[in-house]
Amino acid sequence: MIIDHIGIAVKSLENAAVKYHAGMGLKIEKPTIIKEHKVRMVMLPIGESKIELLEPTEKSSPISKFLDKRGEGVHHICFRVENIEKKIKALKKVGLEVLEEVSKSGYKGQKVVFLHPKSTNGVLIELVEEGIS
After folding, report:
1. Which residues pair with 6 in a beta bridge?
2. Average pLDDT over every residue of 34-47
3. Is 64 strand, coil or helix?
4. Mind listing the pLDDT tens digit for each residue in 74-108?
5. Which of 24, 60, 111, 114 is 20 to 30 A from 37 (CA-CA)?
6. Which CATH class is domain 2-129?
7. Confidence at 37, pLDDT banded by 50, 70, 90
8. Residue-wise DSSP of 82-126
9. Across the strands, what pairs with 111?
């Protein structure tokens, strides 16, 4: 298991992407809308991992709620796993709370699931199944 990406909630994808590109020299992939999660996002590869910038597309988006409550900043850490369903079962056995019982479709159609921060020391954890990345 490795860190796939770190998700950062932002108010403006364009403004944030410029800072990471011009300021830090990171390549910017094409922005994508993920309707199921109500976000517009862009990946910025860095080594084996990525930075994921997330902008809400609707006021009811979890990212919009995060921005209202906490402002811009780190939203989640995502770990890449081989078999997401098997990992969900293993995590539940040791008492970690999974937010969704069934994985959802994420970036490029990958299977994703989130773990409740109450069960992971205050950090929202996303799991993504290996594959397209």
Report:
1. 51, 77
2. 93
3. helix
4. 999 999 999 999 999 999 999 999 987 666 667 76
5. 24
6. alpha beta
7. confident
8. S-HHHHHHHHHHTTPPBS-SS-EE-GGG-EEEEE-GGGTTT--EE
9. 105
Delimit the domains of the chain by residue range.
Answer: 2-129
Contact between 133 and 82 under an 8 Å Cβ cutoff? The reply is no
Taking the C-alpha atoms of residue 85 and residue 112, their distance in angstroms, rounded to an integer, is: 10
Token representation of residue 106: 């994420």
Model confidence, pTM? 0.89
Q: Of the candidates 56, 35, 18, which has an alpha carbon nearest to the alpha carbon of residue 107? A: 35
Q: What are phi and psi of 41, to 5 degrees?
A: -140, 165
12 is written with which tokens? 């403006």
Contacts of range 108-113, beta carbons closer than 8 Å, 24 or more positions apart: 108/32, 108/132, 108/133, 111/84, 112/78, 112/84, 113/84, 113/88
